[in-house]
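Quick log. Single chain, no ligands specified.
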Amino acid sequence: PDDAGTTTKSYGSCGDDPTILKTGAKHLPTDPQNALKLPSGDITRDLYQLNAPSALRRSKSMSGNDAERRGSMASQMRLPGGFRRDFIQMQKQKFGYTLSKPTVFTKNFLEFLTIYGHFAGEDLEDEDFLACDYDTSSPDKVDEESPLVQGNGTHTLGGSALNASKETETHKSSSLKAFFLLMKAFVGTGILFLPKAFSNGGLAFCVVLLVFFSVLSYYCYLFLSQCTAKTGISSFAELGNKMYGKTLKILILNSIVSAQIGFVAAYTVFTAENLKAFLKNTLDLEYPLYYFVIFETLCFAPMSLIRNITKLSLAALLANVFILTGIATIVFYASRDLITNGPAEVVMFNSDNWSLFIGVAIFAFEGIGLIIPVQQSMRHPEDFPKVLLAVISVCCVLFVSIGWLCYITYGEKVQTVVILNLPQDSIAVISIQFFYALAIMLSVPLQILPAIRIMESRLFKRRPSGRVDPKTKWHKNAFRVGITLLTSTIAYLGSSNLDLFVSFIGCIACIPLV
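-> predicted structure:
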């Protein structure tokens, strides 16, 4: 109110008062183009337009609601972080970009994918798109009205969840959660290749060697984490470069790429075998294996174009459920057959094919790329050795149990894809053949992502971003489809002897990386 007690209108900013606008316009240049050449001309561009008659007419014709709305916006802009909140709101309107709001069912898998974004310490962020728009360090509700900086200086709207080192202490993983994250990383489809590997190596030999490899892996992973702590380098490749130069860096990157492509190729054959058995058991149809490899390629090619891995959260959830259900089904039927038929004839050491077991044993430990990311995500990283020991111990017991159970049940008749040893007329087994194949297909985009991004970041390093150059974007898309075709070709070439193929991948790619 003024001195007379009359209430006058209050404007949110000086720019909303037509009198002030008109007065200020007198002192500005008349030519807006020349005005832009002055210092800070672009920032004050709207003020330079005030001399134009159309701008003044618009100011005079503004309704009260428009003035209040602009006043409210100006007030918000004056608050700390107001410009960035306004920028985020404009990004939402322009690109349809929204911050992820996970459900209770997908939150843990989003956290797993967030850690996967730093596979082998490599930054899988795509400059064209966010690799992951879920931030474990952010509060559950984050929008343009949220404070950008918390009390401890941590950004709540960092734009990418891949910066795991910037997470707050309160939002980092507990030791128990780190345990389950590593278990998700280590227990996969590789466990199902162990029964046939036990047949190749012999029961006693495989048990002893698998325990030895578990101890070896534990100390290799522990040394890796200690080197990371000493040097402050989380990337496997950069760590090798720091220690021994560019040659080792190239070897490490080649091992990571070869291992991931090999995993996907083996999974492609595994899926094809299951789909082939599923069609035969349900519709009595039998097709050559390469038909199914071609079908998988047609599915994998568009899935490989996914940049934002948080879009795979539901797929990761379903894949883990199907894999766990499949392992439980295999244990149930193998145990039932063992009780019904008794143990089969087995050998303690197979002098002919024992070397095939070595590659498969290392192949089963497929979580090496997530060792450092999980450690860095822990609230108490000093507990990592205990967590790692627990994970390796549980994996060792699980791997030995599955391999021993299936081998002693089916003996020399055990199949490379052990699901084929189960009763093929059982509805549960038929369902597992389909859903396990579906689980692998859903997890393939995540498995192939590290290999694609490592190669992409080197091949297109000097190219402009695909966000501003459509040509680069389509070249990247073609490259991703090409990698999918290459992987499927490798799968087809190795499909004639899957057991030998898996062992070859373990020896050529996995063992050198360890």
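The mean pLDDT is 76.
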